[in-house]
Amino acid sequence: MPKESYYFPHDYNARNDLKLVKLAAEYEMEGIGIYWCLVEMLYEEEGYIMLSDCDSIAIALRVDCERIMKILKSCLFDSDGEKFWSNSVLRRLEIRHDKSLKASESASKRWGMQTHSDDNANALLEKKGKKKENKVLLPEWIDKGIWTAFAEMRKEKRAPLSDRAIELTVKKLEDLRKAGDNPNDVLNQSIMNNYTGVFPVKRQDRQEPVSTSKRYEVVN
Question: Which residues face 49 on adjacent strands?
C-alpha cells in the first residue's frame, strides 16, 4: 500500500441504494465497479477531477470513455461542465481533514511538552553527571564538619566553592600541613575571620626568629 494511502468510509449496504440499483440495472456490475473506481479517484484527487481527463480514466479502467461519461452524467455525481465531484466524497474529505488537523495540533502540544520535559531531564542528568565526574574527595585529615562550615561561609560571602576552587584550597591546606599548620585550625581561622582563602595560622605565642648574631652575642 502506498505511504499516503487512506481508507474512506463505505457503507456495507451501499449496494441497496436506489441510485446504485438503477446503475446496476443499466450497466450491470461493470457499472458498479466503474462507480467505485471513480469514487476512489476523487478521494485521491482531493474531491475534484476534470472532465477532460475522461480519456485517461478510460484507459486506466479499460472501458470506453463514452460509458464513463454516461455514468458521470447520472445522479450519482455533480458537474459544472469542467469538472465533476461527489458531495458525499467532499463531505467525508472535510471530516477527514478536520480529524487530521486536530490530531496534528494534539501531537504538536504533546511533542512540545515532551521536548520541554526531555530538556529538563537531560539538563538534570548532565548536571548530575558533571557533579559526579568532577567531585573532589576531601582527604581524611580535613574534618568534614569544619569543611562544611567553611563552604557555608563562602556561600554567604557570595564566593561559593567550585570544584576547581576546592582542588586549589585542598592543595593549599596540604602545603600548610607540611609546613606545620593543622588544616582544621587553618579552616577555623578562615571561618572566624570570614576569610575566603586559607592562610598560615596566626599564633600569639609565636616568637620572632632570633638572628645568629644576637644568639651568639658576647655579653661583657
Answer: 84
